[in-house]
Every structure is written in C-alpha cells, then in structure tokens.
Structure of CD177 antigen:
Amino acid sequence: MSPTPLLVLLGVTLILPRVKTLTCQQGTLNKVYNVTELPLQWTAEQGDCEEGWGCQDTMMLIHNGPLVNLVLIKGCTQDPDQEVQVTEHRSSPGLSITSYTHVCRNNLCNNLANSIPLWEPLQPLTTVTPPSEALQCPICMSTNGCPERGTKFLCPPGTTDCYNGVVTLSKGDTTTNMRVQGCLAQGGCNLLNGTQRIGALSLSENCNANDFLSCHSGIMVKTLPELSREPVEWTTYSSKMCNIGEVCQETLLLIDSGYKSLLLGSKGCTLPGTQDSQKVSIHSGPPNVLAASYTHVCNSNWCNKADNSSVLLNTLPRPASPAPEGFKCPVCVNVFGICWDSKIITCPVNATYCYTGYIHLNGGGVSTIMNVQGCMVKSSSRLFKNTQNIGVFSVIEETQNEPPSQDGVAPAPYLTWVEPPTLP
C-alpha cells in the first residue's frame, strides 16, 4: 500500500486524504431493436478506475416508429459528479431522442440496469399502400445503410417531412455511422436539435447521402492444399457504412508453399487513395513459394462484390514440377503463428535454399504473424521483396534461411516463440 501523501508547509506537516480509487460497472451497447423488445435489462462487468475518476452511465434512445436504437456506455470518467438527468433532445410524433446521464463517485454507483427510465410505450407505425393523403416515409435505422426504396409507413399527425441522414456516434477512438430515415415534425438536417454531446457520447449528423458509402465487410481465412488451383467462395454476410470520404475495398492474399496454401481476404472500408483501381500482383512465383494478391478499390455502394477467388487465380503462373531426386525442404503455411506440422517435399528445379519467414500482417480486421516455410532459389530471396502494403494490409517480412545439410535435406530451423495473432 502506498504511503499517505504528506505536505510540509511553514514547518507544519499536513496529512492529506488519500484519493479514492473506485470500482465501476463497465460495458457498451449500440443496437437497433424492435419497439416490442423494450424495455431491456442487462448486466455489466466491473473494472477499476484511475485515482480521482468517477463512475458514469450514459444511455440514449432514438425512437423511430417500429424501431428503437439503444446506446449504452458504462465506465470511468474524469467528469464532475452529476445527479441523474433525463433529457428530451428531440420531441416528435415521429423521430424522438431522449437520454439518461449520471456521474457519481462511489463503488459501483453507475448501476443503471434497464432502459425503463427512458421507456415510453410506442405504437408501431403501420405499412400503407400508396397513394394516401397522409405523409408517408421510409423507416430505417441501420449501421449497414438503408435500401434505396424501403417500405413506406404512414406518419403520425404532426409530422411534415421525411428525414434521411447519417448520425455519427463517437466515444474515444470508436466511431459508428448510422443511417436514419423516418418522419419528422420539421424539415432540414436537424434531427439532433443542436445536441453534440450526451455524457460520454459525441454526436453529429450529415444529410448528404453521397458522403457515406456502404460496403461489404468481413474477413476470410482458408487453409487448404489446392487454393492456388481451385477457386473458393468469397462472400461476406455483413456490410458497413464508411466514414466520410472513405471508399470500398477488397483484398485477397494467397501464399502457397507447395504442400499447404493460405487464402486471406478482407472486405470493408479504406481511407481514400487510388480510386476505382483493380490489380493482381505476383510477389513471388515458382520455383519459389508462391505469393500473390488481388486488390480492388471502388467508390460506389457495395461495389466490393467479388464472390470467389477466381479474380486472383485466373492470372496465376502454373506451379513448377518437382525435380527428380532434387533438393528437399520443409514446407508449411500457418496463419496462427509457428509451423509445427511442416512436411518435407522435393523442391522444383533450380530451388537451392529453404525459406523460413515470419509475415506480420495488419489492417482490414486482421492482425497476425504468419510462419511460412518452403523452397526458394536464393538465400536472400523474400516473398514480398520490399512491399510494405498489399491493399488494406500492411506487411513486414522477417526471414531466416539456413544452408542445406550434406544429404540435401535442410534441417528445420530453430523457432522462437511468436505471440499468437488476433483475428477480430
């Protein structure tokens, strides 16, 4: 235990009170529910705060006809204490926004456990068949974007306009864009009614639909013997709304050691750069370990839509045939770290060295260190030469090569421990 701080002033020693360290409930939630699913209850994890920090609860509900977006943030804060405050930021017969905020300095005092403080039962809007004299608007709230021609609902009395915008929710480095369409009591881009901050949550809105692209999103990892010859499906089952100025991307990386091959794919958003570009690159070809990639950047909704690996395979060189009684090497590709299951194969003609490398990949939802072993022509050969970026992936290559033994079989190199990768 650290000693109590002392302050000596004019010969008088003062004992200062120790700053209390709190334990607070912690967690986040951001999800769209059907109105019939509310009110909601939840449980939260616990964590310790820094000295002097307090506990906080932030909850926001956006009501939009049959839909409710609930945002909940629990955790530590430097903000001063604040009694429970319920605020109605937008009151409308259609779209409405309410919030709950609380800051306190007692252990686990941010104990909000349900959405009841902001819950008022809403009657879902009913679908109608146009034409109708009343206002009709599409209703949507989604981080994946909204359909261009969504189902229209009959708006309640008192609404005069159809709202169509993107609400950006931010906390620290985490940002979420949510498309919102619904009925509003006034025109213009003013759903938030001037609100820029709710507790730990920062908000902004933009009603220029062309500023935000929706892209297919997700990663793919496959390890099979014939990935360089037989195309496989490359589909994702989710999409993402990008930040302003970002474009869609899809990146496919293939590494074939001659025994086992790896196919790693990523779809999503990327920072603006070369737009509407499509490229296949052969970084290393036979008789070396094969390393090739496909990259595609485009700037229209859901344009990153390649659905199988033939976009890369169709341009690959033919694999080299093994040399009779030729040089032998251990071969392996392991996306999850170290090669424990290497297999000795006969290398193609002209291969004279056994490659061992560690490939650091980051970006596009991937963070991993891969181990690759295989046949190479030169001891100084590198799979990716000086390439530092492949599409959305950043690349760092570290090699370890050893000369062949007397019997023509290179011994497996000594491997040091590599931290296992994370694939979010």
